[in-house]
Amino acid sequence: MTGRGELSDGQWERLEPLLPVSNGRCGRWRDHRQVINGILHRIRTGVPWRDLPERFGPWKTAYERHRLWSADGTWERLFQQILAAADAEGGIDWDISVDSTVMRAHQDAAGARRTPLPAPGSTKGAPGPERQDERRWLSPLARLAAVARRARAWAARAAGSAPSCI
Predict the structure, then answer these.
(1) What's the average model confidence in pLDDT over 97-117?
(2) pLDDT at 26
């Protein structure tokens, strides 16, 4: 029996073969399931690492495993593999729903710009006018995708390898 928010037996059976194994140089790793459940608990509740309940093992183990797997791309790899498996099984509906909610701005938000535009030909500060116009019309999803591409490229450069997808 698992606690609220922890991995079920079925979820664990699918996830376990995808997890990295200990290389033996640093000793044996603590049980992956216990540590992952601790990480999930922290993410779900927002508690500080030091306040993780004892049933998840030492807080520092969960913290270090999360830090290590974030740095070496293990979380990203797990996400991609789980996503591909779910898609192959037909478990993902790729239809997009668009919400037309209107957010009203405060009356002080309307009006002219408070800071002057940079002088023509000036490269200090904001990008040139043609680039500003280009960015202004990008959808929020396109801007988010651009940020994700830059983050992946940065992570790939930091790891010393070429980005997997850009």
Answers:
(1) 71
(2) 60
